[in-house]
Amino acid sequence: MAGLLSPLTDPAVVVFSKLASSTQAKAATAAAVTTVALLAIVIGLHRAEKATKLRSLKKSIPSSSEPGNLTEYGIASIISDNESIRLSGRVRRGHYDEEIILEQLSRNRLFLGDEGLKKLREAFVIVVGCGGVGSWAANMLVRSGVAKVRLIDFDQVTLSSLNRHAVANLEDVGTPKVDCLKRALSAVCPWVEIDAKNSLWEIGVAEKLLEDNPTFVIDAIDNIDTKIDLLYYCKTNNIPVIASMGAGCKSDPSRLVIGDISDSIEDPLSRSTRRRLRAKGIAAGIPTVFSVEKPGPGKATLQPLPDEQHASGSVDELAVLPDFRVRILPVLGTMPGLFGLCLANHVICTIAGYPTDYSPGKQRSKVYSELHASLAGLESRLRGNAKRIRVPLSESDVGYIVEEVFRGRSVVSGFPTRLALMRWEKLPEGCLREEDSPLRIEDVVLMTKEEGKKHEEGVLKGEKTPEEMWGKEVVERVERARREEAMYRHYR
């Protein structure tokens, strides 16, 4: 084409040719090629060695088909229940009639009653996320007789999965989690329909993956964006759903709670989920399993993944996708199972119509009502209005500001008692009507009542700035809370 240099006359090509012809350039090029080749060989050998060790480990596992001290029905010879032996033998021969099913579900039948068990056996439950939490939930749904279970997960079983997965063993490492679950649970209840979807759940395929009118959906996802999408989709499409919050860094079983998402506390995943959903218009109405265990000295904490460890190539099993940067999440193997069992328990009882009487969550509606009224009174005083101003913030907004934005503590002193909500900055001149400079969430801070009185007289009615009154550190604290709120407001 006219106006373009030919490859032979391009200045860059000429310069490169001259450099390549020099002895030093040739030596440097050869060294670079050698280095790359050696690195590729080392990485290849490392992967081959790892694969060989894994194959050797799998081969050393005793076969489950070895008879050992078993009867012809495949059960321990010490069992003397002739009826159980007879039914077990029929199952092994492929006969799955009603008599066998009801015998296997007899304890559930006694507990839930015939009508409750019937509802359960007609139910269709979807489990999204089949790791440590979801595998235990799916395990008990199938064992309890749910007619159809759909398993959705894109990930594979890794060695690090084995400390918490419900059914996976060494032979399953490297296989899809949904296939691992289906294979194991089909051997327990072959009459249950298990639909395994080895797929990443995302909003673009929501309608397809959640089709066929599920009775309930279980959210066992640990990715915040995907979790928000799933909960929002279920809530706005009237699909019953229950969510699991974070089991990582938790160790106290007595602190597990089943309650509304608006009550979930002491968990970063729960907090982010609540705020993101609230920004999309959902503040409550989603049952949730969470832990109220507080962090403390000596307890596990979330740690960043060191760069040198990631570069070493020794953390592949921690990643959910190849070459995906991860953080190390300490997990006590028992805790995800407890979360999963709580999820399954709620779903089973709800579908069967069995009454649940959970301990109430954090009920502070009276406190929020008083704070709301006090804030309205403050706005009236600042505008010189004898009639109480109607602030454009609801009691739900007040609860959000208290619990989410300021964590229930004064922004000044950190005290958690005798609290008051205050406008942070002075009203602009001439703002006397309700519609003049209406109060927004980011305009409000949480203080103790004593601090609030000083703030009202010195800043809101006086001539001091917030920094002159409280110092730079408190101002930075407020600004940090504002930035965080602006970030969450982005999702509205």
UniProtKB/TrEMBL annotation:
The keyword Chaperone does not apply. It is a multi-pass membrane protein. It comes from the Eukaryota. The chain crosses the membrane at residues 27-45, 123-142. Residues 106-360 form the THIF-type NAD/FAD binding fold domain. GO terms for molecular function: ATP binding; tRNA threonylcarbamoyladenosine dehydratase; ubiquitin-like modifier activating enzyme activity. It is found in: Mitochondrion outer membrane. Its main location: mitochondrion. Keywords: ATP-binding, Ligase, Membrane, Mitochondrion, Mitochondrion outer membrane, Nucleotide-binding, Transmembrane, Transmembrane helix. GO terms for biological process: cyclic threonylcarbamoyladenosine biosynthetic process. GO terms for cellular component: mitochondrial outer membrane. Catalyzes the ATP-dependent dehydration of threonylcarbamoyladenosine at position 37 (t(6)A37) to form cyclic t(6)A37 (ct(6)A37) in tRNAs that read codons beginning with adenine. Belongs to the HesA/MoeB/ThiF family. This is THIF-type NAD/FAD binding fold domain-containing protein. It comes from Terfezia boudieri ATCC MYA-4762.
